[in-house]
Amino acid sequence: MRTLCFAVVLILPASAFAQSPRLELTVGAVVDGASSAGVTRAELVDPAGNPFTLFEAKHRTTWAPGLEGRVSWRVTERWAVGVTGSWSRPDFETRISGDVEGADPVTAALGMDRFAVELGVERRFGTSTKWQPFAGLAAGWLRELADDRALADSGVAAHVGGGLKYRVREGRPGWLGHIALRAEARLTLRCGGITLGDAGHRWSPTVAAALVIAR
What we know:
The protein is mainly β and 215 residues long.
């Protein structure tokens, strides 16, 4: 009888980990890395018809702290789909250099808001342990809006990455019965948004940390 009770005690935690909750809510902080936002040049044409540059302006968005929320649904034990919404606060920086009169380079900055809503898929590993690695990708809508409202544009955002989730509490009823901490690193791609000149595809690193509750 004692042996049977001992076996039940061992089996219950394992089965609690094996049966992951269906619905997860994630709230946390995110930091986007800096990325290029284009290059522009002020050019004139001399009497001989040859162009020459008065100055060059390089534009970029700085690193950006922000907030992120996610709702995900477990489709199978290892696969989940989800919708993520994020907001961050980069600066739009312009560095002017190469002045034809030899003036020193100067940098100007303007604050901006960045919003994104993405649909993604996630692959989970090690579903029977407290430490759960995962990898995922997502893509969706991007909106950037300068503080002075003179600059605003939309585009597409996408990312691929992975990380670790640590289960703090598992297998209890209700929302607070499933609690985890989550850390993730991503490579983010942005097409569109606020740019000047030919910015092309904008790549930047992103890191995120969050609290997860589930049921």
